[in-house]
Amino acid sequence: MDRGFYLDHMSTWYSQDGKQVFGLRYINFLHEHLGTIFLQGLDKLIVYNIVASLRRLFSNYGHFYNNGMATFESKKKIEKKDVMQFVNDIRKLDF
Amino acid sequence: MFTEGMLVLDKVLMGVTEIEPKEILIDGLRKELCKKMATMLHNEFIFSGKEQTSSGIDHSKQGAMGEFGVYEAKFLKLKANFVGLKRSIEYIQDFLNVQGEKIWREELSRIIDYAVEREATKLVNKKFNANFDDENSYRPEFDPVDAQDLTFMGRLLRNILS
User: Fold this and answer.
1) Hey, of B102, B107, B119, which one would you mutate to test binding to chain A, going by the most A CBs within 10 A of its CB?
2) B36, B22, B39: which is closest to B93 by C-alpha?
3) Which domain holds residue B100?
4) If you measure CA to CA, which chain A residue comes closest to B37?
5) Is B68 close to A40, i.e. CB distance below 8 A?
6) What is the distance between the alpha carbons of residues B85 and A55, in angstroms, rounded to a whole number?
7) Number of folded domains in chain B?
8) Fewer beta carbons below 10 Å: N end or C end of chain A?
9) What pLDDT was estimated at residue A65?
10) Taken in order A53, A80, B156, B150, is the CA torsion positive or negative?
11) B86 at the A interface (CB within 8 A)?
């Protein structure tokens, strides 16, 4: 990934230049200040974000990763600017 | 005085409707608490990117909080406000014979759930189903600060992900 990496032993995400970005320490900080209820809400929101991203990916999966097996109408829909942007972002990731 | 006032409160009959003054008081307390907390959360979670740390710690160093330490002062202020509010409601609960801690917990989870539901409606076209049908409760609705997010939860998450 071009943005950062995760160290399992530290339970933390680091940026490309080695700075801590997000992890146990920040979660602890949030927990201390805003409590469990807030963390629950944040967790739910992250899950909704993941679901939204997955839906976007799979709604266009057939067209981009299955040699264009899609109907004419769906192709038209897919070639919108924001969808293309998302697909290009995904292609950059090295699975 | 508080306690004496609560003890003399009695059920009142207004025609055929029976009114319980204690319930009206609790409703009012909930409403005001919800309004205060929602306003605090809304105002504090605005990330402009020009924050300064209160402790002067260089958060870019190893072992420090990284980018997030920059918002330390914001969180500390929010915590101080929240602790103050919580203490006051715990203090009056014995005098008024109401469950302060319970009210506090319920209102906070309602505000957060409401914010999450609003964000979820935008993200996954989920049917909006917040627990705010009751006419008596305060709806924590604010104008969005930026174009991307509707509530403070969205802003915080965007800040974490960026």
Assistant:
1) B119
2) B22
3) 26-161
4) A34
5) no
6) 41
7) 1
8) C
9) 60
10) negative
11) no
User: Residue A9 burial by CB count (10 A; 0-12/13-18/19+): exposed, middle or buried?
Assistant: exposed
Per-residue pLDDT, averaged over A65-72, amounts to 60
Q: Is the CB of A41 less than 8 angstroms away from the CB of B153?
A: yes
* B20 occurs within a structural domain: no
CB proximity A40 to B under 8 Å? yes
- The answer to whether residue B34 is domain-embedded is yes
pTM of the model: 0.73
Please report, as a single letter, which amino acid is at residue B36: K
Question: Does the CB of B79 have a partner CB in chain A at under 8 Å?
Answer: yes
Q: Please indicate, yes or no, if residue B6 is contained in any of the structural domains.
A: no
pLDDT one digit per residue (tens) for chain B, 162 residues? 767 777 777 777 777 777 788 888 888 888 899 889 899 888 888 877 655 554 555 555 555 555 566 677 788 888 899 899 999 998 888 888 888 889 999 888 888 988 888 888 888 876 666 555 666 667 777 777 777 788 888 888 888 777
User: Looking at residue B136, what is its pLDDT?
Assistant: 62
Using a 10 angstrom Cβ sphere, with 0-12 exposed, 13-18 middle and 19 or more buried, the burial of residue B111 is buried
Is B11 within a domain?
no
Q: Is the pLDDT of residue A69 over 80?
A: no
pLDDT at A59 over 80: no
**Torsion, CA B116, CA A86, CA A95, CA A21, rounded to 10:** -50
Among B57, B68, B72, B77, which would you mutate to test the A interface (most chain A Cβ atoms within 10 Å of its Cβ)?
Answer: B68
Nearest chain B CA: its distance from A54 CA (Å): 10
Residues of chain B with Cβ-Cβ distance to A34 below 8 Å are: 75, 78-79, 82
